[in-house]
Amino acid sequence: MPERSDRYSVVGGGVGGLVVARRLAAAGARVTVFEASDHLGGTVARHEVAGLGLDAAAESFAVRGGTVAALLGELGLQDDIVAPAPGPAWLQPVAGDAVPLPATALLGIPADPLADDVVRVVGHEAAARAVELDARPVGALPDTLGALVRERLGDGVLDRLVAPVVHGVHSQHPDELPVTRAHPGLADAVRAAGSLSGAVVRLRAAAPPGAAVAGIRGGVHRVVPALADDLGRLGGEVRLTARVDDPSRLEGTVIIAAPGIAAPAAPGRRIDLVTLVVEQDELDAAPRGTGLLVAAGAPVGARALTHATAKWAWLREAAAGRHVVRLSYDQTPGDPVAAAVADAETLLGVRLPVVVGAAHVWWMRPAAASTPSGDVVVVGETVAGSGLAGIVAHAERTAADLLAR
Ligand SMILES: Cc1cc2nc3c(=O)[nH]c(=O)nc-3n(C[C@H](O)[C@H](O)[C@H](O)COP(=O)(O)OP(=O)(O)OC[C@H]3O[C@@H](n4cnc5c(N)ncnc54)[C@H](O)[C@@H]3O)c2cc1C
């Protein structure tokens, strides 16, 4: 039998589990990944719609910290990292036509509430109120982003601007999102700047130029076989259709990389996605840029729309004149494809009479886990938050800590 410290069992073969397993295997440890389903990758998945290979969930990664790019470099995918098309996302307000999101903002929090592109979304009254509120001295800061924005900039800015953007990025209302998860440097920046708008100015000035996210030519799902192949090359073992209900029976150090095992998770949230492949030349002009976020109360059920062929040049080429749009829903529509076509027409402002392919998938997003008790090692979304950048960085750190033990 190998030494216990040399042996690791990883429960869950999503990106979190695969990254930690690969790093441990690279150091010579004996690693087995147990995956409940018949395939690896979890929420990073591929599907085909009208013959096009598309991401079925995650389709980009945050470039901050360079962690994902470094991993992709190790996997030989560095030349396939691609930037999305430039330009602001758009917002579908409660009433009226879609508008481009304010250019100078962070998670929708404006650097200047009186800027024209902010006033157009929130209205004069709410903009003036935001300036008045944000001029007051900064006291103890609230815990959630929603409470912070409400306190410093008012309900109008929160509801009409910040909530749709935060929902689009985190699939959560700002009232549920801790300030530190929204942006780790935000609270300090508010204290240093003496205002929330001033904090946004500072953080934007400190951010590197260029897009905040990147993708992979061919789809982000390509990271999964690349990780799995490398894990195999390094001697790691993968067992599919191997659901683990009692991790204490596994060999060696157990790492939990699946939601709901380490600590009883609160019920997750379901997200439905409908992808449409359409023929419509008017979409060549990308009338809503790379896509829109939708304010609650707007006259569509969708919460966001991505115009994927406008966002990713590789996909535009692959689609050969067709267009790919993807809509996300918090509430499953009765007839998802029909609802998505109707919503896409409203949001994009064009008719879509020719739908050549459609797919409806849904995902459960885990709630954040309470910190697991005792010695349990956990990686993945429940502890690192949603998003590949944070999950990869956390999994790499966890592997390094384990190896240093
Ligand atoms: C619709 C959607 C779009 C997204 N878009 C983006 C994006 O563009 N950019 C971004 O960075 N992030 C995005 N995310 C978030 C990102 O995909 C996730 O945060 C990340 O993939 C989670 O990885 P994970 O390894 O923690 O968990 P998961 O991917 O959930 O993997 C967990 C794995 O554990 C397995 N498992 C569960 N229970 C057991 C068990 N008992 N035994 C064994 N195995 C088990 C599951 O089958 C699964 O394979 C998106 C998420 C969704 C839902």
Strand and helix layout:
Elements: E1 7-11, H1 15-26, E2 30-34, E3 46-49, E4 52-55, E5 61-62, H2 67-74, E6 81-82, E7 90-92, E8 99-100, E9 105-106, E10 109-110, H3 116-122, H4 124-134, H5 145-170, H6 179-182, H7 186-193, H8 196-206, E11 213-216, H9 223-233, E12 237-239, E13 253-256, E14 269-279, E15 291-294, E16 304-307, H10 308-311, H11 313-319, E17 323-329, H12 336-348, E18 354-365, E19 377-378, H13 381-384, H14 388-404
Helix pairs in contact: 1-9, 1-14, 3-4, 4-5, 7-8
Bound molecules: flavin-adenine dinucleotide.
The overall pLDDT average reads 93
Give the structural class: alpha/beta
Number of E strands: 19
Task: Give start-end ranges of low-pLDDT stretches.
Answer: none
Number of helices: 14
Helical amount: 25-40%
What CATH calls the topology of the largest domain is FAD/NAD(P)-binding domain
Major β-sheet, in short?
A: 7 strands, mixed
- The CATH superfamily name of the largest domain is FAD/NAD(P)-binding domain
Order of adjacent strands in the largest pleated sheet = 8-7-15-16-17-14-18
| Strand-residue proportion | 15-25%
How many domains make up the coordinates? 3
Shape: globular
CATH architecture of the largest domain: 3-Layer(bba) Sandwich
What's the level 1 CATH class of the largest domain? Alpha Beta
Which compounds are bound in this model?
flavin-adenine dinucleotide
Gap between N and C termini, in Å? 20 Å
Question: For the CA atoms, what is the radius of gyration?
Answer: 22 Å
Short account of what is shown:
With 405 residues, the chain is α/β, with parallel strands linked by helices. It contains 14 helices and 19 strands.
